[in-house]
Amino acid sequence: MLTVKEVLNRKYFESAKVVAGQTGLNHAIKWIHILEVTDVKQLIKGNELILTTGVILKDNEQGFLNFVKQLNELDVAGLCIELGMYIQTIPESVIKLADQLDFPLIVFQEIVPFVGITQDLHTAIIHQQYDILRQLEDYSQKINNYVLKVNDKVKILQYMQKYLNVDIYFDVNKGTSLAIPNKKIENCEKYINLLGSKHKAKIEVNLFDQLYGTVYIYSEKREMTELDLLILDRTVVTLSQFILRDLYIEEKLESENRKFFEKWLEGENSDDELLYFIEEIDQKLKHNGWMVMIHQLRRKNAIKDLTNYKINLRQALQKEGFYTFIVEQSQYLIFIINDLAQGATYKERMNRVMNEMIHQSKQDMLIAVGKYVTHYNELKESYQTAQETLQIRMKHTELSYFYDELVLYHMVKVLQNNSSLMQAAMEKIEKLSQYDSKHNANLIQTLDVYFQCNGLKKETAEKLFIVRQTLYHRLEKVEQIIGSDFMKYENRLCLEIMLLMTKHNYYEGVKV
């Protein structure tokens, strides 16, 4: 791109002299503009070289200072002033300001034709634009051919880095970021933030309307040019297509491995088969914890683009330190998850992923996470407990995603399978239920809340929105029906479990 320094070598600038802002001579010029007004905000787009006779600045030093400040704030490349008719010299205060701002201030010491300057420079700019398009087309062909030969997105960015001779930082939103040449990621982020806006540029990588990452190019030695920005844009398009291709290939491979995954979930694979499969992917996986997560896709709210959803969720899990295999079964997505982070924070990290995905997809999803196991051949146990957790959450979606936070509810399920215990529970609670039906009362609800409040009458009344006298009356009725010793430890524990058994029906066919 044409710079102020290059313009000084053209024929109409033979009598020109740089009086201030020498360090800004590398400013790029996109257009030439003649201005004879002081309010220029609506007229300037940035990177213009301004020509003026100075008629608006005559005998107005403060106005001159404000004019230079305004042009600099609007990213003007430089200011050329014709000396003679209106201005004989540039005030020292203006020169000092321009030097402080690195803003080129150029004077013509004799009359020059502004029309000739604009025609000459516009022609040069147009020729440069044509040359930029030619270089961009050449680059596009080369990188497209190069991508066919490589299988790593890093190489695509390395190709751009060598072509432009700039530094590159790829900030991946849900994965591992990288810097080219290889540098510490934290140092790159700090360094880029310290650079001026003209010395860096960035473009986002978006997949399926979601931010995958951001590619930065930057250089302390020079400003970014229009060609840099165009090549960055073309490279990001190529990079996006490459990443999409990789993600779809990964999904296709998982689809082909579906039978293997299903056998793994059912515990039918041999230890040797599992070990060989895992080591082929990554040796580190075999030393980490495992769990199974199930997503039930409600038919009425089916996710239209399931591939999109799976890819986004996989990326979100990867960002939080999980490696994932996905099995698609009818209206279920089953995730075999390896915990790369190996930390006690897996629930916290998993919750962040789930909250993010629910917010993004705006889907009414039913999610369950099975038992966290320490070995890959124990995955069947995690799968079974995930299924059990899903059954519990089908009717009580307010409960936790995680199996080990629902131990009491799993115990109740086991008790519900015992017909004798279920019958005993029904008989005990049925007496209170009959009274409620006959007298339009709320004894069962009152007893349930009373237990939840640990027998504290004030808190119970407040939670039920009744006065304490009403609570006392209800508790007297409960004593009359099931006995006055219902708050004794053994009786209370038994009643609480009975209430859970009759209140939470987890299996079809269990009638309350």
UniProtKB/TrEMBL annotation:
Residues in domain Purine catabolism PurC-like? 6-125
List, alphabetically, the Gene3D superfamilies matched: PucR C-terminal helix-turn-helix domain (1.10.10.2840)
Q: Where is the PucR C-terminal helix-turn-helix domain?
A: 443-500
Q: Which Pfam families match?
A: HTH_30, PucR
Residues in a coiled coil are: none
Q: What is this protein called?
A: Polyketide synthase regulator
Which species?
Answer: Solibacillus kalamii
